Amino acid sequence: MRSFLVKDLIMYRKILAFNVLAILILCALSRYPSTDALGIIVWTGGFMMQCIQVDSRGRADVLLNSLPVTRRSMVVVRYLEPVVFGIFGFLLVDLAAAAAVTFRFPLFQPMGWIHLGGIVIGAAVWSIVMLPIYYWLGPAFIQYLVFVFAFVFSAAAVVVRSLGALHAVAPEPIPSFVHAMAMGNAGAWLPALVVTAVLYAASLALSVRLYERWEF
Q1: Is residue 40 within 8 Å of 23, Cβ to Cβ?
Q2: How far, in Å, CA of 208 to CA of 76, rounded?
Q3: CA distances from residue 39 to 45, 69, 72 in whole angstroms, order as listed
Q4: CA 41, CA 90: separation in Å to the nearest integer?
Q5: Do 14 and 87 contact (CB within 8 A), yes or no?
Q6: 44: closest CA among 4, 13, 85?
Q7: DSSP annotation of 104
Q8: Which segments cross the bilayer (predicted)?
């Protein structure tokens, strides 16, 4: 599985470099850690879809299926990629924030473990929703859904900022569960992580079954 991740890093290094630059510019302009986290979530899903589309145009699946690897392993790697790259984006922005503080040029705001948890859950949602659709309908339908989900996550960024402003003047309208997660309450985070893990496992099993039906 690690070799598949390395393969994608090598094959898509130019795309990755462009996306890294884009996320750094976005985070430098936003200066809100929550908005930065949502931007990273959008980036992870977009990067995953770019990899799938390039693989589809190059018929990489035909080549990979001629190698002594299982289709289950190939699907698992696809599911892991958004989470791995989401963590990478989190570390990248936090390192940039530390460097900015060192050089007294605070362009970036550091994120905490709450933001990391949100990134992991958000990146997992990309896999949970998008990959079964991909393995069911194929890559032609994915490119349209990417724009829809990117719009949804962008709208979510506006909602998060609005909730933050609303909470400053009137805490009562904020849903208690959302507020508890924002405050790092373990009682709120544990159910969210458990539900995400269950859906993640179910989605993965479904995608494996769908991909095993593909014919090349």
Answers
A1: yes
A2: 8
A3: 10, 34, 30
A4: 10
A5: no
A6: 85
A7: T
A8: 12-31, 75-101, 113-137, 144-169, 189-211
